[in-house]
């Protein structure tokens, strides 16, 4: 079950020091659809940009970690919903080799129990793997949360989500009640927006960091 959470990626404490970074575009950028914005995370040696809904914050950590990481989050709801957010860790090295280690295939019993779905070829330019799985909502509350973790990169950068990845939605039933069953329509409501973020990721030249 531990590999479901982050693979081999280390846990990142959200309370660690971080700095806000400049957005590449301002709200209303004419090159983007209305309500969307381009962000940049200048992770050391692994700067990248992506497009998401306006109002978010992209932050790079100042912590002396062996691998650079940063966060993307929203402090408020947008049009009644909280847009997808997550944290990222970047590793040096070839993504085709590292992603299978950082986000390995789960045993068959886990795939059925946690309703795991695995994807490839979501990004048009980079090697990538994505995985959706369920987790208990709370130890004292019924229900489950669906989340998506992904790993992508090229020959020199490997980017992976951490802390469980993007939350997609919820099912009111306990995980133990749904193996092999169809999940509720509310379980992956944020999936389209999350996929758009993933597909928009682009690594930036070293001189832009």
Task: Explain the overall architecture.
The chain is mainly beta and 209 residues long. It has one domain (2-208). Helices cover 14% and strands 36% of the residues. It contains 4 helices and 12 strands; from the N terminus they run H-E-E-E-E-E-E-H-H-E-E-E-E-E-H-E. The chain has helices at 2-6, 95-102, 108-113, 191-200; strands spanning 18-20, 36-41, 48-53, 57-61, 69-73, 86-92, 117-120, 127-138, 141-153, 157-162, 166-171, 202-203. The strands form 2 sheets. Strands 1, 4, 5, 6, 7, 8, 9, 10 and 11 form a 9-stranded antiparallel sheet that branches. The chain has a 3-stranded antiparallel sheet with strand order 2-3-12.
Distance between the termini: 36 Å
The whole-angstrom Rg is 17 Å
Oligomer: single chain
Low-confidence stretches: 1-29
Number of helices: 4
How many structural domains in the coordinates? 1
Strand content range = 35-45%
The biggest sheet amounts to: 9 strands, antiparallel
Molecular shape: globular
N-to-C series of helices and strands: HEEEEEEHHEEEEEHE
Derived from helix and strand composition plus strand pairing, the structural class reads mainly beta
Average pLDDT level: 83
Query: In percent, how helical is the residue content?
Result: 10-25%
Tally of strands: 12
SSE blueprint and pairings:
Elements (H helix, E strand, L loop, with lengths): L1 H5 L11 E3 L15 E6 L6 E6 L3 E5 L7 E5 L12 E7 L2 H8 L5 H6 L3 E4 L6 E12 L2 E13 L3 E6 L3 E6 L19 H10 L1 E2 L6
Antiparallel strand pairs: 1-4, 2-3, 3-12, 4-5, 5-6, 6-10, 7-8, 8-9, 9-10, 9-11
